[in-house]
Write a structure and sequence with these properties.
The complex is a heterodimer of chains A (1039) and B (443).
Chain A: H1 27-37, H2 40-45, H3 50-61, H4 70-88, H5 104-107, H6 110-115, H7 133-166, H8 174-178, H9 183-186, H10 200-203, H11 210-218, H12 223-240, H13 243-263, H14 271-277, H15 293-302, H16 312-320, H17 326-336, H18 354-374, H19 377-385, E1 389-390, H20 403-409, H21 415-426, H22 431-444, H23 447-476, H24 480-493, H25 497-503, H26 505-525, H27 533-541, H28 546-569, H29 577-580, H30 587-620, H31 628-654, H32 664-681, H33 705-715, H34 720-735, H35 738-747, H36 750-753, H37 758-764, H38 792-808, H39 831-841, H40 846-854, H41 859-872, H42 891-898, H43 904-919, E2 924-925, E3 947-948, H44 977-980, H45 994-1002, H46 1012-1019, E4 1023-1024
Parallel strand pairs in A: 1-4
Antiparallel strand pairs in A: 2-3
Helix pairs in contact in A: 1-3, 1-7, 3-7, 4-13, 7-15, 12-13, 25-26, 30-31, 32-38, 33-38, 35-41, 37-41
Chain B: H1 10-13, H2 36-53, E1 58-63, E2 69-74, E3 81-86, E4 90-95, E5 100-106, E6 112-117, E7 124-128, E8 132-136, E9 148-151, E10 158-161, E11 167-171, E12 175-179, E13 187-189, E14 196-201, E15 208-213, E16 217-222, E17 227-234, E18 238-243, E19 250-255, E20 260-264, E21 273-275, E22 282-287, E23 293-298, E24 303-307, E25 313-317, E26 325-330, E27 336-341, E28 345-350, H3 362-377, H4 382-389, H5 395-420, H6 433-436, E29 438-442
Antiparallel strand pairs in B: 1-28, 2-3, 3-4, 4-5, 6-7, 7-8, 8-9, 10-11, 11-12, 12-13, 14-15, 15-16, 16-17, 17-29, 18-19, 19-20, 20-21, 22-23, 23-24, 24-25, 26-27, 27-28
Classes of the chains: A mainly alpha (1039), B alpha+beta (443).
Region (Disordered) (chain A): 1-305, 496-591, 640-717, 746-877, 911-936
Biased composition (Basic and acidic residues) (chain A): 136-145, 502-525, 534-548, 769-807, 826-839, 911-925
Organism (chain A): Podila minutissima
């Protein structure tokens, strides 16, 4: 702490935490008191060393300086204050003799008295002012102490002064001092807080800033007061203790002294001391009354004081003249002279008042303890953050025995062990024996050899070790890219099969077998086919995270590779249908198709005959098929089919060359055709991609005119574009409800009017009619058109014709919209009628009229029609009836039209209103009519009607609904009591967001969902203790 | 015809050695275990219910004291031992496993205010209002006299032994540090003039002592520098102090204002935690040896158990006959809690009310740990929270709790109202709960 700043300055109120200083009555003694008090202990301690006394006295003299030249001195004073800071850091340079005294009487005069009226100086005993009792006590104690010192000092002060005067020449010039750079002052802490006084009241008083200094500079008149302040500073410095204080005081004294020198009137102001000069007692001749010859001479010369003071020379001068005592002389010299004369006699600080000292000690001790205790912090933090703590903490861990340890202790005990041991011994494989053998082998070798061998071994070991490390490192690499590159590299490096065969046929054979096995395995696993559950799931749910996608592509790739391999290895011509998809079609394939087509034809004929048999059988039974007209129809169909088959065969023969051209799509469709054919054979199974069930028995039949017409229609089928549209059409049908339509169809005898077959398709996708080369045939990608009554022959024909058609022409697909008519269909029963009408209302279209004409078929066909109608069937939506014009409309417009009359918004609003009404608070009339009242003639109506009023918590006012201002939302305001039992109201403490909390609940802990290891890990409690084990308090590892 | 049957070989299902684990065939396919959250919730709910059903914390009462039991001490190395001092100067040594007194003497002419045992041997110390401190050796059957007696100038109010050295501290008019071998205190520590109620050695940082004074202060001392280091003044008196055995700088102060305050001796200007729930003065407090929990005994005739880092108690123990609890102790194995009360009984409680004591096999342990984990996981779900928190408490406690909460609420409301009607400029800062009780720190 900087003593220079520690003066109470402005802080008069608390007055240095005490008030020990002047008041009018006892000013002088007080001043002496406190000035000496600062040195109390120092004085006591310096009893042996005279020089220290000087400083003490000089301090007292600080106040005796007469301020003759006020302005001058005040200016200097400013500098002194600066110098004070300066000297604080240059203690060593201050010489003892620089010390001076100033009289407090002068220092604090009446003028100041007025000014500092309100000030409470440290140690002042003014009872009128409020003080802290402790402080007062301290002050009293002080006074008693300092009185003794007073007595001592008074007698000595004058002499001292003179001696100092003498040596004045040696001192540094004041101007030099003034020139001292200010940076030293800067080094001083700006704000000083006396640690001792931390009572909240007084705290402020001890904060000193630059303001104090500035103030001092400002009012020059206050210099004396400031002297006083400085003196008080010293009082406080006592509390501070230590070297700082001493150095400060020294510097203070020095500066005072300097000023005095400048004034050149040092001797004029010692009124108080003059009395002493008049003393005339004779001294007894004793060691206590030695003449201080040197100093006395000096003093007499200046006439300042008669008072003699013992000097070290007084005591030892006699020695100087004598021989011997050389060491003593040297010692004396050292004491006496030299640049650092003052150093050896530095005074000790006065002990601080106990209470202050204690406080300081406590603080220091507290800091120390804090530091000591903080050493635990890392341990504490570690324990607090630990996921698991097993108490007792410092329990020694069980040691896992090493293999060597186990082996050394091993003793064969069981039969088998003994036997094994015996065998080992017989084989000379005992550990000891091996060692011996090694040793013997070594013995035989020369030292160089041994060393060489050792080096070799070492190298080997080293290499092995490194390799092991490398392998470990490499095996840890997870990068897929790396693995891929590695694999490729391996493959590149691997020998080709042929090379292998040349080199080592046996090996090559083995390798090949292995490869075969691998392939077989892979084929068996079917992993590459994307038919696995996982793969399906991934595809279905469109899981597009890169990893799974990569996995899927990898699978596909593998499948490809495998297929290629198989083709490469087995040059078998037999290829599965699936594979053919991948190979380009060529003439051979078409040839193959044709061949197959003929085969199929044969098969169909076969089946027809079978169907005939079946029909015969059916005759025996009852039901629709047993009826005559059905049988007739069947016969007719059969004949037609046969005719068609013949026709087809002819066609085939004619167009053999043309059929060479084909495309993939057609191929596919042919495949489908095949499928359908197969399906026909099985009763009650799914036919075609439409996936509709076949109703009734296993389908014999339907070969009819319309079937042939159908065949033609199919002929005109075209590819991709249509498929797309058809799909979207399918979508639209999905939105609409099919069920009712079915019923309607059944009820209203739609069968009579509704077209079947191709017209079905029209209604299924009303706006998707395609026109192709002026032929109003229905194109449909999926073989929806291939209803069950279209025969296999048709399909086959269709297939091949389609191929042809494709080859011949590029298709233009146009969507016909102008012919669509909107029908309002409020009454479903009228639907059939409407349809009829609509059909007739579209006179411009040939096709529609044809469709109308086309209608044929029995009850069964009706059903099928109805079914087909499902696709297009819609209850609330207008039915699009196809008419043939060429204008095209965008899909969106179509959809917009489709939903034109569909008032969703108003419906929604109505629903919202209803909900709000239902949920608003309501009064409930609890009266039961007739209950508790008389009935009969003349009975009065019951007066008090019991109405249960709506409780405040019941329901939600419409205006207060959460969705009141949200147009498109209905928020359910009903409190679900069951759900409330599981709902947490607010985010629980350690969590900061709902998401976080939800996360904590997400992962199940139980064994059903986790592996055993995870389960154990998750359920391990944070703290485990052992039963009956004492848990000792922590012991410090750092002690 | 081939008939398929399930066949399991006995060998597969049998352990070869007793150390082998039981093989349990499990299919971790998640589709086989649906509704995991719902199922786990149900399990958690059941576990909570079962826990409450099995919550029977009271193990037994050790009766023998004629007057109330005002101080107790555990032995640092013997789980079985407990020393207690009665209001009539009676000293008793208990065997907890046998639940009976194995040694007793009327050691003092006045109330025994403190007992303390220490590492070395089987001896223990007692201090009393009769101005004596005595060392007793219960294993020495030849005499019923104390091994050593130290006489002080004033009555002693508390005693605490150093963890390892032959040194103990007594409180009274000042803190006296005694050596076993000296008749006079080696050291006297004083700061202020008021009576000091308790003194406690820090068991981890062994040179630090804490004491509480009747002038509402808590004073810390450091024996290395032989002086007090800091003084904390609270709004009300502190009755007991417990140092955290695992965290050298933390301690708990049981206060007269129904709360327990957790302090960090490095930062005394603020409590680290305020543990509430008692409805009367807290008379004693003790840390669990793990440093994670505390047990407190209150003037409201209840014992409460807290997680040291939470604000409210996790359990409350009470019996019909138990009077005001003046001393509580957590046993050194973290399993039991002991209480000494005005009615002259020492009571033994389980530290966790529903814990099954004794050895548990692996599966049982795994099951309980799982249940514990689930309870923790779903602790915030209302139903489970409600069941978990539910306690049957004496009517007096219940009403007192209600009344207290009303009072606190009204105070809060009032404060808020005042704030509402105060100018913004003159609005005082809100005082955090953790600072409310603190008057100041003296240096």
């Amino acid at each position: 702490m900087a003593p220079g700043r520690a003066g109470p300055g402005k802080g008069g109120r608390g007055g240095a935490g005490g008030s020990n200083n002047n008041n009018n009555n006892n000013r002088k003694p007080q001043a002496n008191n406190h000035s000496r008090k600062a040195r109390g202990a120092a004085a006591a301690a310096s009893a042996s060393a005279n020089k220290s006394n000087k400083s003490v006295k000089s301090l007292a003299n600080v106040y005796s300086v007469e301020d003759e030249d006020e302005s001058k001195s005040s200016r200097r004073r400013k500098q002194y204050l600066d110098e004070v800071d300066n000297y604080e850091y240059n203690v060593d340079e201050i010489e003892d003799e620089d010390d001076e005294e100033i009289d407090s009487d002068e220092a604090f005069d009446e003028e100041d008295e007025e000014k500092y009226e309100n000030f409470q100086f440290y140690g002042s005993k003014d009872a009128g002012k409020p003080k802290k009792s402790k402080k007062t006590d301290k002050g009293k104690g002080k006074k008693v102490d300092s009185e003794d010192e007073d007595m001592m000092d008074q007698s000595e002060s004058e002499e001292e002064e003179e001696s100092e005067e003498e040596e004045g020449a040696e001192y540094m010039d004041i101007s030099e001092m003034l020139d001292q750079p200010e940076e030293e002052e800067v080094a001083l802490p700006k704000k000083v807080k006396l640690a001792g006084f931390n009572d909240s009241e007084s705290e402020d008083d001890f904060k000193f800033g630059d303001d104090d200094d500035e103030e001092e500079e400002d009012d020059e008149e206050d210099e004396d007061d400031e002297e006083e302040d400085e003196a008080e500073d010293m009082d406080e410095d006592e509390e501070e203790g230590g070297k700082d204080l001493t150095s400060f005081i020294d510097s203070l004294e020095t500066s005072t002294k300097k000023r005095k020198q400048d004034d050149g009137s040092a001797s004029t102001t010692k009124k108080a001391r003059k009395n002493l000069r008049e003393r005339t007692e004779a001294y007894d001749e004793s060691e206590y009354n030695l003449q201080a010859h040197r100093s006395s001479a000096a003093h007499s010369a200046t006439g300042v004081s008669n008072k003699k003071k013992l000097d070290i020379l007084d005591l030892v001068s006699t020695i100087q003249n004598e021989a011997g005592f050389s060491s003593l002389k040297k010692g004396v010299q050292a004491l006496e002279s030299g640049p650092n004369k003052g150093k050896s006699v530095e005074t000790l600080a006065a002990p601080l008042p106990k209470i202050v000292q204690d406080r300081l000690n406590r603080q220091a001790a507290y800091d120390e303890s804090k530091k000591e205790v903080s050493k635990w912090l890392p341990i504490v933090q570690k324990n607090r953050q630990a996921d698991h703590l097993a108490f007792p903490l410092n329990a020694p861990a069980p040691v896992a025995p090493s293999n060597a340890a186990l082996a050394s202790k091993f003793d064969a005990s069981t039969e088998m062990e003994k036997e094994v041991e015996k065998v080992l011994i017989e084989g000379g494989m005992q550990e000891k024996k091996l060692m011996e053998f090694e040793e013997l082998a070594l013995n035989k070798m020369s030292t160089e050899e041994v060393e060489k061998r050792r080096a070799e071994l070492r190298q080997m070991r080293d290499l092995m070790f490194r390799d092991e490390l490398r392998a470990k490192r490499v095996s840890k690499i997870k990068s897929k890219l790396y693995r891929k590159i590695k694999k490729k590299e391996r493959e590149r490096n691997a020998l080709t099969e042929e090379e292998m065969r040349e080199l080592d046929p046996e090996q090559a054979h083995e390798e090949r077998l292995f490869a075969e096995q691998q392939r077989a395995q892979e084929r068996m696993t079917l992993k590459h086919k994307n038919t696995g559950k996982w793969a399906k799931d991934q595809l279905k749910h469109g899981n597009f995270d890169p990893e799974s996608r990569q996995a899927i592509t990898e699978q596909i790739e593998r499948g490809d590779r495998l297929r290629r391999k198989i083709q490469g290895v087995d040059s078998d011509e037999e290829q599965s249908g699936g594979e053919s998809e991948y190979s380009d079609l060529d003439d051979d394939d078409v040839e193959g198709i044709k061949n197959r087509a003929f085969d199929e034809l044969a098969a169909v004929e076969d089946q027809l005959s079978k169907a005939e048999d079946a029909a015969k059988e059916a005759k025996v039974g009852k039901g629709v098929f047993a009826m005559k007209f059905m049988q007739d129809a069947a016969k007719r169909n059969k004949l037609q089919a046969q005719a068609q088959a013949e026709e087809f065969r002819k066609e085939m023969m004619d167009e053999e060359e043309e059929a060479a051209k084909s495309s993939e799509d057609e191929w596919q469709s042919s495949k489908k055709g095949k499928k359908n054919k197969k399906n026909v054979a099985e009763p009650g199974t799914v036919i075609g991609a439409g996936g509709r069930m076949v109703f009734g028995s296993g389908v014999e039949v339907p070969e009819s005119k319309d079937a042939s017409g159908k065949a033609k229609a199919v002929k005109m089928n075209s590819g991709g574009q249509i498929q797309k549209v058809a799909l979207s059409g399918g979508h639209s049908t999905k939105v609409e409800g099919p069920v009712n339509v079915k019923v309607a169809g059944m009820k209203s005898g739609l069968s009579a009017t509704a077209p079947e077959g191709d017209s079905d398709d029209g209604s299924a996708n009303p706006w998707l009619k395609t026109e192709k080369h002026g032929q109003g045939k229905i194109a449909r990608k999926n073989d929806k058109g291939m209803t069950k009554d279209s025969s296999k022959v048709d399909k086959l024909q269709a297939k091949i014709k389609k191929q042809k058609a494709e080859a011949e022409s590029d298709d233009e697909v146009q969507i016909d919209t102008s012919s669509f008519l909107t029908l309002s269909k409020d009454n479903q029963k009228e639907r059939g009628l409407h349809k009829d009408e609509s059909a007739s209302k579209a006179p411009s279209t040939k096709a529609s009229s044809q469709q109308a004409k086309n209608v044929k078929g029995g009850a069964k066909e009706e059903v099928s029609v109805a079914n087909d109608d499902d696709d297009s069937g819609d209850e609330a939506e207008p039915v699009m009836v196809h008419a043939k014009t060429t204008a095209a409309l965008s899909q969106r417009d179509l959809v917009a039209r489709a939903f034109a009359n569909d008032n969703v918004v108003s419906e929604f609003e109505r629903e919202k209103m209803e909900t709000a009404e239902a949920e608003k608070p309501k009064d409930i009339d609890m009266t039961l009519p007739g209950w508790g009242s008389w009935g009969g003639k003349g009975a009065k109506k019951k007066k008090n009607v019991v109405v249960k009023k709506a409780q405040p918590g019941d329901g939600v006012e419409i205006s207060k609904r959460k969705d009141a201002k949200l147009a498109h939302v209905i928020i359910n305001e009903k409190r679900d009591k069951k759900a409330a039992a599981y709902a947490v109201n607010k985010i629980p403490h350690p969590f900061t967001s709902w998401a976080q909390y939800e996360d904590s609940l997400r992962a199940p802990v139980g064994k059903e969902w986790n592996t055993n290891a995870t389960f154990q890990q998750m359920t391990l409690p944070r703290i485990t203790t052992k039963l009956g084990k004492i848990i000792d308090p922590l012991t410090a590892p750092f002690k | 015809m081939k008939v398929k049957v399930l066949s399991r070989s006995v060998e597969d299902a049998t352990r070869q050695r007793s150390n082998d684990i039981h093989k349990i065939q499990r299919n971790l396919d998640p589709t086989l275990h649906p509704f995991e959250k719902a199922r786990e919730y149900t399990r958690a709910l059941n576990a909570t219910k079962v826990e409450r059903m099995f919550a029977k914390p009271f193990v037994g009462a050790l009766s023998g004291h004629v007057d109330g039991v005002y101080c107790m001490a555990k032995h640092p190395k013997k789980l079985d031992w407990l020393v207690s001092g009665g209001g009539d100067g009676d000293l008793r040594l208990w065997s907890l496993s046998e639940q009976k007194s194995i040694w007793s003497t009327v050691g003092h002419k006045a109330m025994v205010t403190g007992v303390s045992s220490f590492l070395e041997g089987n001896r223990f110390l007692s201090c009393s209002n009769d101005r004596t401190v005595k060392i007793w050796d219960p294993t020495d059957n030849s005499t019923s006299l104390p091994t050593a007696t130290y006489t002080g100038k004033n009555a002693f109010s508390g005693i605490s032994h150093h963890r390892s050295d032959n040194m103990f501290a007594t409180s009274g008019s000042a803190i006296d540090i005694w050596d076993h071998d000296r008749a006079e205190p080696v050291q006297t520590l004083n700061w202020g003039v008021d009576t000091i109620n308790t003194v406690k050695f820090n068991q981890t940082e062994t040179s630090i002592i804490a004491s509480t004074g009747s002038d509402r202060t808590i004073i810390l001392y450091d024996l290395r520098t032989s002086q007090p280091i800091t003084k904390l003044i609270l709004a009300m008196r502190t009755n007991a102090i417990a140092w955290n055995p695992m965290e050298a700088f933390n301690f708990m102060a049981a206060n007269e204002d129904h709360n327990i305050y957790a302090f960090d001796m490095r930062k005394m200007d603020k409590a680290q935690n305020v543990l509430k729930d008692h409805v009367s003065a807290v008379m004693s407090v003790d840390y669990s040896p793990t440093g994670e929990e505390i047990v407190t005994g209150g003037y409201d005739r209840t014992i409460r158990l807290y997680n040291a880092r939470q604000g409210h108690s996790r359990d409350i123990y009470h019996t019909n006959r138990m009077q005001r609890v003046f001393s509580v102790i957590y046993t050194m194995d973290n399993k039991y809690v002991l209480s000494g009360s005005d009615d002259g009984n020492v009571r033994l409680w389980k530290a966790r009310a529903s814990e099954k004591m004794g050895v548990r096999d692996y599966r049982e342990r795994a099951h309980l740990e799982y249940a514990e984990k689930l309870k923790e996981k779903f602790a915030h779900v209302p139903e489970i929270r409600r069941i978990n928190r539910h306690r049957n408490v004496p009517k007096a406690i219940k009403t007192a709790t209600q009344r207290k909460s009303i009072m606190i609420n009204s105070r809060k409301v009032k404060e808020e109202n005042v704030r509402k009607h105060t100018k913004k400029e003159s609005l005082p800062d809100r005082i955090p709960e953790r600072k409310k009780a603190i008057v100041g720190v003296k240096k």
